Amino acid sequence: MKNLKLYSLIVLAVLALLIILQNTVEVQVRILTLTMSAPLAALLLMTLLVGMILGMLIAYLIDRRTRKRHS
Fold first, then answer.
1. What is the reported pTM?
2. Tens of pLDDT along 10-34?
């Protein structure tokens, strides 16, 4: 099971890297009233990092709640 998780993580990381590196075009992004230009690769990387951080936070909170119930 550990190997499956590791292989899955490696495959997803390689896919994410390929997608990010192939999308280097400059794009305009609007967030509320702020407009900025940035490479699409940077925006994809930021989105990936935010998703990873939120996923880890949710996993931590669920684990914490589970441990409190069993204590």
1. 0.71
2. 998 899 889 888 988 999 999 899 9
* CB within 8 Å of 23: residues ≥ 6 apart: 39, 40, 41, 44
Dihedrals φ, ψ of 42, to 5°? -65, -40
Give the whole-angstrom CA distance, residue 56 versus residue 46. Answer: 15
**Cα distance between residue 7 and residue 19, in whole Å:** 18
- Cα-based distances in Å from 43 to 3, 25, 55: 31, 11, 18
| Helix ranges restricted to H, the chain | 2-22, 40-70
Q: CA-CA distance, 50 to 23, in Å (whole number)?
A: 18
In terms of phi and psi (left: phi > 0; alpha: psi -120 to 50; beta: otherwise), the region of 29 is beta
